[in-house]
Design goal:
Distance between the termini: 101 Å
Mean pLDDT: 91
Helix content: over 70%
Low-confidence stretches: none
Largest sheet: none
Number of helices: 1
Number of strands: 0
Strand content: under 5%
Radius of gyration: 29 Å
Structural class: mainly alpha
Shape: rod-shaped
Length: 65
């Protein structure tokens, strides 16, 4: 039976754990980034619609007739 090298096993386990956490962190930030871009686009569309409505309200001139 071969002796166990606990230090090497512990080091490899820590490296694998670090790699997995970095992978999960990358996935999380990719999804957050995509959601942020989607929210920014939705907010831009909404603000454009509100701006168009307000432009019609404030451009009305009763003396133009």
């Amino acid at each position: 039976m071969l002796p166990l090298n606990l230090a090497a096993i512990d080091k490899e386990a820590r490296q694998l754990r670090t790699a997995e956490l970095q992978r999960l962190q990358g996935l999380f930030f990719a999804k957050v980034s995509a959601y942020g871009h989607w929210m920014a686009g939705a907010a831009h569309s909404g603000l454009t619609a509100i701006g168009t409505s307000l432009r019609h309200l404030f451009s009305w001139n009763p003396q133009a007739h």
